[in-house]
């Protein structure tokens, strides 16, 4: 009788094949700029999550005996207040640490809302086409035609100062950008061979979207969300500087800039310098990491 047993399969190569996370980690280790960006983001996240443990003082506590102190390395400075105090004696370092909470919350949830709304609109528009595409894109184009900052400032002034209002405002006004990117990617993917084959064999629309289109949208949209988080941190700081962000008693980097602006002419430059550096460094870290994500998640730009 003929032996029909199959020969043993050599799995040595497969066992040594690294997983997706391992490959991403190796790619990250090669890119020093991305590592620097990730380190900055991790530092800010730790500041936000462990503010009560890291802050040396209560950010709202006033000490009128220690007002307008410069940073510790200046002649009149005190090591008890490393980055100095404001005109009410509030510790500047503690306020900057607590301010990371507001900036990250606005950036994270604002980008998440924009991603969800824009992705939904882009999927419906690009996949269904016809009058749905025309209607949705008309609304998107109308929103994109209005200057972004003008809309943000006007709506923020009408709604009042609230963290929830700022998050919703940024999420809604940034969603058209995600919708346009999603629609373009859906139109490109819909003409791909594997998507057309799935449609030809009778796959339902929901299955085609879930299995073949949405997974291919994750890379471009996550990269875009990273850059939008960076932009939203800047926009929140700008609104806070204008007095349109969170209430003035909430320590945020924008509110710190607004307080520092009032004291700048009085010779207290540290009240604006260090909050400004916190904003700039955080945005730089997100942009560096976002550049790496774009290169890794987009096969057309992937580094060899």
Can you offer a commentary on this structure?
With 304 residues, this protein is mostly helical. The protein has one domain (41-66, 80-297): Orthogonal Bundle (MetI-like fold). The chain is 71% helix and 0% strand. It contains twelve helices and no strands. Helix 11 packs antiparallel against helix 12 (270-297). The longest helix is centred in the middle third of the chain and has 37 residues, at 92-128.
Kindly list the characteristics that best describe this protein.
mainly alpha; MetI-like fold
CATH-defined topology: MetI-like fold
Query: How much of the polypeptide forms β-strand, as a percent range?
Result: under 5%
Q: Which sheet architecture does the biggest sheet show?
A: none
N-to-C series of helices and strands: HHHHHHHHHHHH
Overall pLDDT confidence: 83
| Quaternary structure of the protein | single chain
Helix-residue proportion: over 70%
Low-confidence regions: 1-17
> How would you sum up the global shape?
elongated
Structural class designation: mainly alpha
* CATH superfamily annotation: MetI-like
CATH class reads: Mainly Alpha
């Amino acid at each position: 009788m003929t032996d029909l047993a199959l020969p043993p399969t050599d799995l040595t190569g497969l066992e040594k094949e690294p997983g997706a996370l391992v490959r991403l980690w190796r790619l990250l280790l090669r890119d020093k700029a991305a590592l620097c960006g990730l380190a900055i983001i991790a530092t800010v996240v730790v500041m936000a999550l462990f503010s009560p443990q890291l802050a040396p003082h209560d950010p709202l506590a006033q000490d009128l005996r220690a007002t307008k102190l410069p940073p510790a390395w200046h002649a009149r400075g005190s090591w008890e207040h490393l980055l100095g105090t404001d005109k009410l004696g509030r510790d500047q370092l503690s306020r900057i640490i607590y301010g990371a909470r507001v900036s990250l919350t606005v950036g994270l949830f604002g980008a998440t809302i924009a991603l969800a709304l824009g992705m939904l609109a882009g999927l419906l528009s690009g996949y269904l086409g016809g009058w749905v595409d025309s209607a949705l894109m008309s609304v998107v184009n109308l929103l994109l035609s209005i200057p972004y900052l003008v809309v943000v400032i006007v709506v923020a002034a009408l709604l009042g100062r609230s963290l929830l209002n700022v998050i919703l405002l940024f999420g809604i006004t940034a969603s058209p950008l995600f919708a346009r990117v999603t629609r373009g990617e859906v139109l490109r993917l819909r003409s791909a061979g594997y998507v057309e084959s799935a449609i030809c064999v009778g796959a339902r629309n929901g299955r085609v979207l879930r299995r073949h289109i949405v997974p291919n949208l994750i890379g471009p949209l996550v990269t875009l969300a990273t850059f939008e988080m960076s932009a939203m941190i800047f926009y929140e700081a700008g609104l806070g500087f204008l007095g349109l962000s969170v209430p003035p008693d909430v320590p945020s980097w924008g509110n710190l800039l607004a307080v520092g602006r009032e004291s700048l002419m009085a010779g207290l430059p540290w009240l604006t310098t260090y909050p400004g550096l916190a904003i700039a460094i955080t945005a730089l870290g997100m942009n560096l990491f976002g550049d790496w994500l774009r290169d890794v998640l987009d096969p057309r730009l992937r580094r060899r």
